[in-house]
Specification:
This protein is mainly alpha-helical. It has 9 helices and 3 strands. It has a 3-stranded antiparallel β-sheet.
Length: 171
């Protein structure tokens, strides 16, 4: 089984991603599910791999990271109201999230991978752990091209489907 198929199999262990709004607060990812965000991240990563001429197993590694980059969110988010310290309920979406761990969801996601068998696990864990570095400076920071690419893919995909629609606004 390829690393991409392994990543998809792991993702399926967290069915919450299919219905979870991409933004619990409604401030970002307007109208998107997390599934849409993951799919967009994969598309962006495929384009980045093409632009940087990344092929073979390295390309598959980056695509697998795109599928799994937000896996930590699924451990710190639940449908319904959670009445525990550190948890915030988002009435608009009907989900609760541990806000104390939100900024660390990349690190949490890397730890989640310890529970699964997957090729190139340590490299994937590193890619997942750095993907939020542009927003959270206390999190691990990227050092390699691949680490920067996962950050870029997530950032571009966070702008939503409309980023792929170009409308001429000037004559």
């Amino acid at each position: 089984m390829s690393i991409v198929d392994q990543a998809k199999h792991i993702l399926e262990q967290f069915p919450i991603y299919k219905e979870l709004p991409a933004s619990l607060s409604g401030k970002h990812h307007f109208g998107e599910t997390h599934k849409t965000h993951i799919e967009l991240t994969v598309i962006v990563m495929e384009h980045l791999c093409d632009e940087f001429n990344i092929k073979g197993e390295d390309r598959d590694l980056l695509i697998a990271a795109a599928y799994l980059h937000d896996i930590g969110l699924y451990k710190i988010t639940q449908k319904g109201k959670v009445d525990l310290p550190g948890w915030k309920y988002f009435e608009q979406s009907g989900y609760s999230r541990n806000e104390n761990l939100m900024y660390k969801h990349g690190t949490v996601g890397a730890q989640v991978l310890d529970d699964f068998e997957i090729d190139r696990k340590e490299e994937l864990k590193r890619l997942i752990s750095v993907h939020m570095s542009h927003w959270y400076k206390d999190e691990p920071q990227p050092n390699t091209l691949y680490e920067y690419l996962i950050c870029i893919a997530d950032y571009i995909a966070s702008k939503g489907e409309n980023i792929f629609r170009y409308e001429k606004t000037h004559k």
